[in-house]
Amino acid sequence: MKQIAVAIHSGRVEGLGEKAAKFVDALAEACPDAVLLVGGYWGHMVDVVDAALRRGLRVVVFLPMEREDVALPKGVIVVRTGCEFRCRSVQMVRSADAVAVLGGGVGTMIEALMAYAMGKPLFVLVGTGAYSDRLREAYPRHFDERKAVDVVYVESPEELARAVCAAGPGVAAKFG
Question: CATH fold of 3-175, please?
Answer without folding.
Answer: Rossmann fold (3.40.50)
